[in-house]
Design goal:
Layout (H helix, E strand, L loop, with lengths): L2 H21 L3 E4 L7 E6 L4 E5 L15 E6 L11 E6 L3 E6 L4 E5 L14 E6 L12 E6 L3 E6 L4 E5 L14 E6 L21
Length: 205
């Protein structure tokens, strides 16, 4: 390797490190879950950044198939325009996010409805999770967590909703069958009338 090439490589490395320091200068929340294939943070200004595996567009930057060695920003030109993300959670191939107005967004793999927008089409840019008609639209969402290919949502009144893969009963709705929209799992069974205060999600539960 000649000296000019070495110099060019070193300059590129320094630029990447400098970029990482700039975009992550104001981190207010870190959302990285167990078994995930990528990392994610949200800056204080509400912009999420991602790195690592991006095979299904789980970075939300309009690109899929390429891994990233340093943080890149989510696409803010679509449904996230003017929105401030307050928390995020990543599954293996999808991401779910909550904004300051209580709306949910998701992106990445959607073969089992894990994006919650009523379809099973993957998306490399953020889409809005369907709230209308699920019963959650009148409630205040306080937490979201992602499992392998499903997600759970907690509201301020202690209700729990789920969506996505249900091959192992991980949606908790009393039956198998995936769901591409949010399902209220706290209105019947042992959770009926209970005030749930926290939620967590594993790979398949």
């Amino acid at each position: 390797m000649n000296n000019n090439l070495k110099t060019l490589i070193l300059r590129l490395v320094f630029l990447m490190l400098a970029f990482s320091q700039v975009v992550l200068a104001d981190i207010s929340y870190i959302g990285i879950g167990p078994g995930k294939t990528f990392g994610a943070v949200v800056r204080a200004d509400g912009i999420p950044y991602f790195w690592g595996n991006n095979s299904y567009g789980q970075h939300g930057n309009g690109i899929s198939g390429n891994a990233s060695l340093y943080p890149d920003a989510v696409d803010k030109t679509g449904v996230l325009s003017g929105k401030k993300i307050t928390s995020i959670s990543g599954g293996v191939y999808h991401t779910i996010a909550l904004d300051s107005e209580g709306r949910l967004y998701s992106w990445g793999a959607n073969d089992l409805g894990q994006l919650g927008n009523g379809s099973t089409v993957n998306s490399s840019v953020p889409v809005e999770v369907q709230l209308i008609g699920t019963g959650i639209e009148t409630k205040t969402i306080v937490k979201v967590v992602a499992g392998y290919d499903f997600s759970l949502v907690l509201t301020s009144d202690g209700s729990v909703y789920s969506l996505g893969n249900n091959g192992n009963g991980q949606l908790g709705k009393g039956s198998y069958g995936h769901s591409a929209t949010l399902v209220d799992i706290s209105n019947s069974g042992v959770l009926s009338g209970e005030n749930i205060i926290d939620i967590a999600a594993g790979f398949y539960h």
